[in-house]
Amino acid sequence: MDKCKIRELWFQVNTLRRAALRPYFQEIGLTVGQGQPRILNSLRKYGTMTQRELADCCFVDVTRISRTVDRLVAAGLLSKQIDPECRRSCLISLTEEGRKKAVQVQHIFEKGDEIWWKSFDEEELERLYQYLLKMEQSLKGDQGK
């Protein structure tokens, strides 16, 4: 199998997935490329966390998360407070408006799931999941080399 074809198809599928969701997120005032939906969804699922924990949870670097968090704070969706256990660290949490927006984000992600997984049966989804775990382990094991 030509691995280049797989890589190109992977890129195309991811681009199509993002393009399919973008209008829904824009409709509720969020920017997809900055990771705003993922940040809101992560805080909805896991609750208040430090900026470092949020960056790790969202798989983005701390600098990028910092700028996006600042935008979401300015929009009234997040609050940022000094961590009482470490004054150099901030705790990030959803505001009431942010919680409402995060629920909308969850519904959009669920709508996306319905679209792109509809042609897979449970066995195929399980196999795909196992393949992706295998790929993740390969990538994690190869970091820094």
TrEMBL record:
<dbReference type="InterPro" id="IPR000835">
    <property type="entry name" value="HTH_MarR-typ"/>
</dbReference>
<feature type="domain" description="HTH marR-type">
    <location>
        <begin position="1"/>
        <end position="137"/>
    </location>
</feature>
<dbReference type="InterPro" id="IPR039422">
    <property type="entry name" value="MarR/SlyA-like"/>
</dbReference>
<protein>
    <submittedName>
        <fullName>MarR family transcriptional regulator</fullName>
    </submittedName>
</protein>
<dbReference type="GO" id="GO:0006950">
    <property type="term" value="P:response to stress"/>
</dbReference>
<dbReference type="GO" id="GO:0003700">
    <property type="term" value="F:DNA-binding transcription factor activity"/>
</dbReference>
<dbReference type="InterPro" id="IPR036388">
    <property type="entry name" value="WH-like_DNA-bd_sf"/>
</dbReference>
<dbReference type="InterPro" id="IPR036390">
    <property type="entry name" value="WH_DNA-bd_sf"/>
</dbReference>
<dbReference type="Pfam" id="PF12802">
    <property type="entry name" value="MarR_2"/>
</dbReference>
